[in-house]
Design goal:
By secondary structure, the protein is α+β, with helices and mostly antiparallel strands. Helix content is 38%, strand content 19%. The chain has a 7-stranded antiparallel β-sheet. A 5-stranded mixed β-sheet has the order 10-9-8-11-12, sandwiched between helices. A two-stranded antiparallel ribbon has the order 13-14. Helix 1 crosses helix 3 (77-95) and helix 5 (249-283) crosses helix 8.
Length: 426
């Protein structure tokens, strides 16, 4: 096959680590040291004159800090260099308008992570069908769940190899994410049909051809009862704690159990989203979605003291439901998966897609009789059907009439317009 039909692709593969208690302590120490290194770099950046904020000066500063502060020495040198590069990249993203300015990382609100920049340091081997082993600097040989074939040993080469990894800790424990570079065949243009997608709460995904994708509860009835019991125990123990008193280990343990159940629910939701979006990307060549302003949709209705909001509790429950469905994450998955299969994803304006009749095109008040039923009140039409199906048909019609916004295939987020660099950062 000619090189013209091949392309390099980078993706990440996440696997759960099986660490001993001693290895967990070592990895935790490295993650805390990496966070401290970030905060030291941020303090150095703020104190240094503008003409001294260079990569070479920052590298010299972190080398000196590793010699002066024993706690930072537990972080491998290459991981410290990765923190430095990530910090400078954060400022570049800020200057280009892609993100906000970097700030200090708090102990409780930041994700614990450690970089392993060099793939050759991992020395990955497959032990048997379910487990593999990798070398983590200053931790040792650790086991991880082997759930996907990785380019190691004779399967690795210049084009198919592991370029690095990152250790990430969540409520379910430590995980390792491998950065994999592979050479794949460029996808042919997808010749499948066009489809419009309407996202919702009662019906998570409704397609314009009448198909729907639904899911059940992410936690079983027993798990829900367990979560409620733990939340009540945590609230009761917190209520009896005196002001200024340190949180007990028992309460910390309860918080960890609550976080574990919520993480289990999120993992099941991610699995459903991956399977659903993969099926859509394989079947359809053009996918059309609404350009929803989700951040504005989940704003609180509490209001102010002078002008208090109405139906605050109901709006709060709606906001939780919208956040639980993670519509933005669904669109992100569809964006890169349609591009991977040779298709395209487009966005259209969202207003009135659920109020307009997909047959006659008129908006008549009262046509949407309920959440699931749409009956057009136009005397010349009278079409009736599922409301979500009607909205999906309107979304597809907007694309066919040329009202699509920026094509989103191949990237998950549309970049903001470039801004002028802040005077303090130039």
């Amino acid at each position: 096959m000619s090189e013209r039909g091949l392309e390099k692709r980078h993706f990440g593969h996440r696997a759960r680590l099986a660490l001993s208690p001693a290895e967990v302590l070592k990895t935790d120490d490295q993650a805390h040291a990496a966070r401290t290194m970030w905060n030291c770099l941020h303090a150095w950046w703020q104190m240094m004159p503008k003409d001294k904020r260079t990569l070479a000066n920052a590298d010299a500063a972190i080398r000196q800090a590793r010699m002066d502060i024993d706690f930072l020495a537990v972080l491998p040198a290459q991981a410290a260099q990765a923190v430095l590069k990530t910090y400078f990249q954060a400022w570049k993203n800020c200057w280009d308008g892609r993100a906000d300015a970097p700030n200090f990382k708090g102990r409780l609100r930041s994700v614990m992570s450690v970089d392993v920049p060099q793939g050759r340091d991992l020395n990955i081997v497959r032990v048997h069908r379910r487990w593999g082993m990798a070398s983590i600097p200053k931790v040792g040989r650790v086991r991880f769940r082997w759930t996907k074939d990785l380019p190691v040993g004779k399967h690795a080469g210049a084009e198919n190899r592991i370029t690095g990894a990152r250790l990430v800790k969540d409520a379910l424990g430590w995980h390792i994410t491998f950065r994999v570079q592979t050479l794949e065949t460029k996808p042919e243009p997808h010749t499948g049909p066009e489809v419009g997608i309407d996202v919702g709460i009662n019906v998570p995904i409704a397609l314009s051809d009448g198909e729907t994708y639904k899911h059940g509860e992410w936690l079983t009835a027993k798990e829900k009862a367990r979560l409620l019991h733990l939340e009540q125990c945590a609230a009761q123990r917190k209520q009896h704690r005196r002001p200024g008193e340190r949180t007990s280990r028992r309460l910390h343990r309860t918080y960890d159990q609550i976080a574990g159940l919520r993480a289990k629910a999120k993992r099941r939701a991610l699995d459903w989203q991956h399977r659903t979006t993969t099926a859509i990307a394989r079947q359809y060549g053009t996918v059309v979605v609404e350009a929803l302003a989700i951040t504005n949709m989940v704003k609180s209705a509490r209001g102010t003291v002078e002008e208090p909001g109405k139906n605050v509790a109901q709006k709060s429950g709606l906001n939780r439901s919208i956040s639980g469905e993670a519509w933005g994450r669904t669109v992100t998955m569809l964006a890169y998966k349609t591009a991977r299969h040779g298709g395209t994803l487009h966005k259209v304006p969202a207003p009135n897609t659920s109020r307009r009749c997909s047959t006659c095109g008129f908006i008549v008040p009262g046509s949407r009789e309920s959440q699931a039923v749409f009956v057009c009140k136009n005397p010349d039409c009278g079409w009736s059907g599922n409301a979500d199906h009607n909205a999906a048909r309107n979304i597809l019609h907007l694309y066919r009439t040329g009202l699509a916004l920026v094509p989103a295939a191949g990237r998950a987020v549309v970049r903001r317009a470039k801004r002028v660099k802040p005077a303090a950062a130039r």
